[in-house]
Design brief:
This protein is mostly helical. The protein contains 16 helices and two strands. The protein has helices at 3-11, 14-32, 37-45, 59-85, 91-116, 133-141, 149-174, 180-198, 205-221, 227-235, 247-271, 282-285, 287-313, 325-334, 339-349, 354-388, and strands at residues 47-50, 55-58. A two-stranded antiparallel sheet has the order 1-2. Helix 2 packs across helix 6, helix 5 crosses helix 7 and helix 8 runs parallel beside helix 10 (227-235). The longest helix is centred in the C-terminal third of the chain and has 35 residues, at 354-388.
Length: 389
């Protein structure tokens, strides 16, 4: 086979990007529990950047707040395209992931609270609310064309709403201080971006430069800066034409390969470096661990599907095109992959209790792997049934 053609097929295959992400998770876990773990952590903690503009941060922050903003930009572009001309263009389809995400946040938080109300762990109620969008999309991408595109779009939209909800929860309940001047500047830049869209400015550079400032202001406001990627994505113009390539489609095409094969693997390497120790085992049997595991594995599944069922029953929404309830159950399981966002909330919930942090991390890891396995298997089985029908 021609080598150029081989690489083109490789980079256009979403299954390979999912496999790469899983391999990076395994490599990161191996590094974290090897002799070089300390050096790897020192590298992640090393500050780089320009101090004069208050842009000197550890490598891990540049990855989680910087590179992941680009990932959110790409997912936001895909969601906007689907809203304008695709699977989410009708109100019934667009409303379902919003309603499902709300259920997927409320029910896990309630389950965790039932286990931990009145205990030293009760402040961690936000831990099982989050869905790790990068890992959940990577798992579903491994199933390729066997899963209807509408289900993948539903999961992506649900995960974005879920992450925005988690960011709001962090900002309101887990952030010590909001810097209102920077937040107002962020709102000003966002308004500018949508004014550019209103006046049909099509040059991408006029969106990218304000988008960088938006990221800067949001990051300094105390709110998770990845939301800048979503706001920027929704401001970039598109059209409903199949013949004319819009600015949104150009940027989406440009970002797809570097995000799938560089940003997401780097994200996995940086965020899965969990060093195992004996104290972590307690995180599976105490109320903290049970609240996290039941919240992520069962709470997400129940909340997403219960709220989806009610929305469809009352004719507010409809099932994604060519999908089934079995596939919705699979998506509900995949949404239980809390991982990095859940770990981040755990660190904020128990800032000084290192042992509790370790227990929470291990419970999140177990719940996320269990959710990933169950979701993948259910969707795989449902895809066989779908192809037979």
């Amino acid at each position: 086979m021609n080598l150029t053609l081989y690489f083109k097929r490789f980079f256009n295959n979403s299954q390979f990007s999912g496999i790469m992400l899983i391999l990076c998770v395994i490599i990161s876990l191996l590094i974290a529990n090897s002799a070089i773990s300390e050096n790897f952590q020192l590298f992640l903690d090393k500050k780089i950047g320009v101090s004069v503009f208050h842009l000197e941060y550890p490598v891990s922050v540049w990855i989680n707040d910087g590179l992941m903003a680009v990932f959110f930009l790409l997912v936001g572009l895909e969601i906007k395209r689907e809203i304008i001309e695709g699977e989410l263009s009708s109100f019934k389809n667009a409303s379902l992931p919003i309603v499902a995400a709300i259920g997927g946040m409320i029910v896990p938080a309630v389950i965790f609270t039932i286990f931990n109300i009145g205990t030293q762990y009760e402040n961690g109620w936000g831990i099982p609310m989050a869905t790790d969008i990068a890992f959940s999309l990577a798992i579903i991408s491994m199933l390729g064309s066997r899963i209807p595109n509408s289900i993948k779009i539903f999961l992506a939209a649900l995960a974005i709403v879920d992450d925005l909800g988690a960011i709001l929860v962090i900002a309101i309940f887990y952030t010590d201080q909001i810097h209102w001047v920077y937040l107002l500047l962020s709102l000003g830049v966002t308004l500018l971006l949508f004014i550019l869209n209103f006046f049909k400015v099509t040059k991408l550079i006029f969106y990218i430069i304000p988008g960088i400032f938006l990221w800067y202001f949001l990051h300094h406001s105390g709110i998770h800066a990845t939301i800048a990627g979503v706001l920027l994505a929704f401001s970039i113009p598109t059209n409903e034409s199949d013949t004319e390539i819009s600015p949104l489609e150009k940027l989406e095409h440009t970002l797809s390969v570097p995000v799938s094969f560089l940003i997401m693997p780097v994200f996995a390497l940086a965020n899965t470096n969990i060093t195992f120790n004996n104290t972590m085992i307690g995180g599976l049997t105490n109320t903290l661990g049970l609240g996290i595991i039941c919240g992520l594995v069962l709470g997400k599944l129940i909340g997403i599907n219960l709220f989806s069922f009610l929305a469809i029953k009352f004719k507010l929404s409809s099932l994604p095109q060519n999908s089934s309830w079995m596939q919705m159950i699979g998506v509900g399981c995949l949404a239980g992959i809390g991982f990095t966002m859940s770990i981040f909330i755990a660190l904020l919930s128990f800032k000084t209790e290192i042992q509790i942090q370790d227990e929470a991390k291990f419970a999140i890891l177990v719940a996320s792997f269990l959710s990933a396995f169950l979701g993948y298997m259910i969707l795989k089985i449902s895809s066989k049934k779908f192809s037979e029908d």
